[in-house]
Structure formats: structure tokens, C-alpha cells
Amino acid sequence: MLTIHVAEHTQEAAVLVEGAAVAAVGPYDELAAAHPAARVRHWPGILTPGLLNPYGPELLEATYHPDPREADRLGTEPIGGERAAALFRADPSRLGASARRGVQRLFAHGTVAVAGELRARPVVDTVRRAGLAIGRRPERLRGPVSLSPTPLVLLPPLTEGAPARFAIFDVTDRAELVRQGATTCVATVLAGRMVFRAR
Known about the structure:
single chain; 7 helices; alpha/beta; four-stranded mixed β-sheet; Urease, subunit C, domain 1; elongated
């Protein structure tokens, strides 16, 4: 099935998706006219190629993402440092489940790729199953470990035939995305599937 994704402030760069790939990129009016049977998804903000988070190991192997059922004991925010290490030592099976929740948090921040050397098999398997791309880590990491790192690293522009991997942010332009950060994400698409949509 063909789907056109178009965002309010980037209508000149709408994306036609067929299966798991980008079928075309271009002005929304042209894509809609050429493919009248395509389903159309209208979004606020801007459509981007999505983000690379350079802190893959730090966020998925060295951070514990609590299960909602643990909120009364552990809270809901990611736990790092020695406290996370102690949780993983006490129950190694927590690592895979934590990584799955961590990946969902990454999706909610428009992340479609991670960087850094992942060593733990449960984390590697989780990343592979989720469909996250693996990118090159920048030589210098300037900001603290974050789901919305500074600076944000946008992937190269979408092209015909490339994997349908992108994100939509509720901002007016890229400058506002840099100012507001990745928490403005409203949708993330991987391999043509919507893996996150803000309510």
C-alpha cells in the first residue's frame, strides 16, 4: 500500500512510502496527483530524516529504564550510574527488557539510528529487532548523555529507494527543532512502519 506522509511546514518534501522503502520524495501536490489512491497522513510541524543518537551503549546498556509496574519503587525516569549497574547485577534478565523500553523512549524522540559499540547480546538483539540503524559515532561528543542530545544529529536527506526511516517534529523549522529538542517528536517511522505516534 502506498502512503504519503506530509508535514505542515515541509510540504515541498513529502514522502511517498511503499512497503519498507521510500518510493518518492517531492512536493505534496505532485505526489498526491501522481498517486491519487495513496493513503495520506497529514502531520503538524516538519518531516525530517530522523535523528541519530550517539549514546547507544550509555542509554541501552548502562541505563535502566523502569517498567511502569516498578514506578512505586523506582520511579519512571531512566536510572544511570551505579544504581543501574546494581539493578543489572541483581537480575541480569532486566537488561533486555530495559533495552526494549529504552528503544521505545528513543522512538519517542525521533531516533531512527544509534551509534556507539553495543556489546551486550540482549541489547544488540533488541536494536536489530527494532530496526534501528547503526551509525558512526561522532569523534567528539559534546553534550551529556540524553534522549535529546546536544547537538542533535540529523541523518542524510531521504532519497528514492532508501529505507522509509524518518521522524516528524511539531516545530516550524529545523532551527526551532534545535532550540526545542527532540521531545517535540510526534511520529517516528522505521521500515515504513509507525513505531511511535504521540497521542
